[in-house]
């Protein structure tokens, strides 16, 4: 079918487009303007046309996500769903995730924490998310097999082979390390870990583990840089951990997860206000400017009840004291560990207000929106459905001033947000939510509207009320098929899970089989993600490595 989206303001920063024009679609792809009469014409007059949104970091599947639903069933209550989809709008369900992303114009979402030991269950949950393409990042950095190899000094080739095999076997899209060595150290009684602290038993450090993974990711050609969750998340002085980790990358590609939770500078410890921290957003953005090898997603805080989900068991154990309501769950698994801790970001609380301000600061101070990705670290900073409101605040200083006027004075005393005049343009919003994340993940077929791209397209009614505009897309196409009209789902379809196309060395397969049999009495087959487990015959789609 030949489709013409006609007369809309087409915003595609990758092609330098920000003007009224047309977008042509055929057989699920963006095509050049055609001389043929289209089978369907969409009148987009008065609308903004963008590529479908791409989410790089959102906890939408996995064991801790399931645990959060069990721990806080009241948080996941929502309205009833259309006939035939009884759980489509149950908060947190796969259908709810897919529907709410799609209504905002998003067409791809990535789960950033895929434990290899729990890969099949995580992939089954991802497959339950309709409408979107999705993927997940395989977690390494605390597992005994990798730490043994590093402790024994077996060299870069052995680490590379294990990383390559792990990504392939878990069917991941990339690699993430979470407080590298932290889970292992926690099991030996360590409650705080910095970049060069020794990890008991292994005699390693976070720096050594992360450096080995950085090298392996580069040598394998993983399109997405190593996705790093640093030490000391959420603590005053976490900015030191961020900057020292950035320096430790030594020019290699690196991506920082939820940077807002590291943009906390130390203040006078005698002053208990806001937990003793101030904004370090300026320091973080200056460091990023000096290191073009790095990217980060924001982890913007939004006000209200949420639940924190993380495989960083060391930090979740510490965070349990702030649980609201007072219940939490931790698990100390063999390779990782993790925890679920409910949290309330108080609308007029000093700490929450300052966190809210710091995330906006990071984006508004950034000189390169394509390296600055909008996330809330869903659900850790708040639910992803708040993206439209965040976009509104970025695009309107007046709207920010109205919000700041309702908040404690600490926002102005310990952050520069009230003095920032910048307002994001639509093109910069597209970089923040489309082209930047797609480029970061190595997904060259989306995030833009150039000829040959997937026909993942979002059409919005242009409005100065950016919250309303981006909350309910007028039209969303996925692979050229209409899935949303006027903010409502019109067709439920099955997306695909994106996995990295990597080959595995036969020697590491044998070694991993022997290791698992010795440790668990079960081999690789017990941790596999077979095609036969999925009802759709084409559940997975390969993504090529870098040349």
UniProtKB/TrEMBL annotation:
Q: Name one GO molecular function term.
A: formylmethanofuran dehydrogenase activity
Q: Does the keyword Oxidoreductase apply?
A: yes
Q: What is this protein called?
A: Formylmethanofuran dehydrogenase subunit A
Q: Give the record's keywords alphabetically.
A: Oxidoreductase
The beginning of the lineage is: Bacteria, Pseudomonadati, Pseudomonadota, Alphaproteobacteria, Hyphomicrobiales
Q: Which residues form a coiled coil?
A: none
Q: Which Pfam families match?
A: Amidohydro_3
Organism per entry = Methylobacterium brachythecii
Record's Gene3D superfamilies? Metal-dependent hydrolases, Urease, subunit C, domain 1
Q: How would you classify this enzyme at the top EC level? A: oxidoreductase
**Oxidoreductase listed as a keyword:** yes
């Amino acid at each position: 079918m030949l489709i013409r989206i006609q007369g809309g303001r087409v915003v595609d920063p990758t092609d330098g487009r920000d003007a009224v024009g047309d977008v042509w679609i055929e057989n699920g792809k963006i095509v050049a303007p055609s001389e043929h009469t289209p089978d369907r014409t969409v009148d987009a007059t008065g609308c903004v046309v963008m590529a479908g949104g791409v989410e790089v970091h959102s906890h939408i599947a996995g064991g801790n996500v399931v645990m959060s639903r069990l721990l806080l069933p009241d948080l996941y209550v929502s309205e009833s769903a259309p006939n035939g989809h009884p759980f489509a709008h149950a908060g947190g369900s796969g259908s709810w995730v897919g529907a709410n992303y799609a209504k905002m114009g998003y067409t791809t979402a990535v789960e950033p924490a895929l434990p290899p030991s729990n890969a099949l269950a995580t992939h089954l949950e991802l497959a339950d998310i309709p409408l979107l393409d999705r993927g997940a990042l395989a977690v390494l950095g605390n597992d005994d097999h990798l730490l043994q190899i590093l402790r024994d000094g077996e060299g870069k080739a052995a680490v590379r082979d294990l990383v390559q095999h792990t990504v392939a076997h878990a069917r991941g899209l990339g690699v993430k390390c979470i407080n590298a060595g932290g889970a292992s150290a926690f099991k030996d009684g360590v409650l705080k870990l910095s970049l060069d602290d020794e990890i008991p038993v292994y005699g390693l450090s976070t720096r050594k583990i992360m450096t080995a993974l950085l090298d392996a990711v580069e040598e394998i050609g993983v399109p997405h840089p190593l996705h790093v969750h640093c030490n000391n998340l959420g603590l005053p002085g976490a900015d030191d951990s961020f900057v020292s980790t950035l320096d430790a990358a030594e020019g290699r590609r690196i991506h920082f997860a939820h940077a807002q939770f590291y943009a906390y500078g130390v203040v006078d410890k005698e002053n208990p206000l806001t937990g003793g921290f101030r904004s370090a957003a300026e320091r973080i953005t200056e460091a990023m400017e000096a290191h073009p090898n790095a990217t980060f997603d924001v982890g913007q805080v939004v006000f209200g009840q949420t639940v924190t989900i993380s495989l960083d068991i060391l930090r979740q154990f510490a965070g349990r004291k702030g649980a609201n309501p007072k219940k939490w769950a931790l698990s100390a698994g063999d390779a990782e560990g993790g925890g679920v801790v409910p949290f309330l970001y108080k609308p007029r609380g000093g700490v929450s207000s300052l966190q809210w301000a710091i995330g906006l600061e990071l984006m508004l101070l950034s000189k390169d929106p394509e390296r600055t990705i909008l996330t809330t670290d869903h659900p850790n900073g708040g639910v992803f459905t708040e993206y439209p409101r965040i976009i509104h605040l970025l695009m309107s200083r007046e709207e920010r001033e109205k919000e700041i006027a309702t908040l404690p004075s600490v926002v102005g005393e310990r952050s520069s947000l009230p003095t920032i005049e910048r307002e994001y343009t639509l093109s910069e919003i597209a970089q923040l939510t489309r082209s930047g994340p797609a480029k970061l993940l190595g997904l060259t077929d989306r995030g833009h509207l150039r000829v040959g791209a997937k026909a993942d397209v979002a059409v919005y009614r242009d409005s100065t009320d950016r919250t309303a505009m981006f909350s309910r897309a007028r039209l969303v196409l996925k692979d050229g098929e209409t899935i949303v009209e006027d903010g409502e789902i019109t067709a439920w379809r099955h997306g695909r899970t994106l996995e990295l196309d990597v080959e595995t060395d036969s020697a590491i397969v044998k070694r991993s089989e022997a290791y698992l049999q010795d440790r668990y009495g079960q081999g690789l087959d017990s941790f596999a993600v077979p095609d036969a487990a999925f009802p759709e015959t084409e559940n997975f789609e390969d993504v090529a490595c870098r040349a």
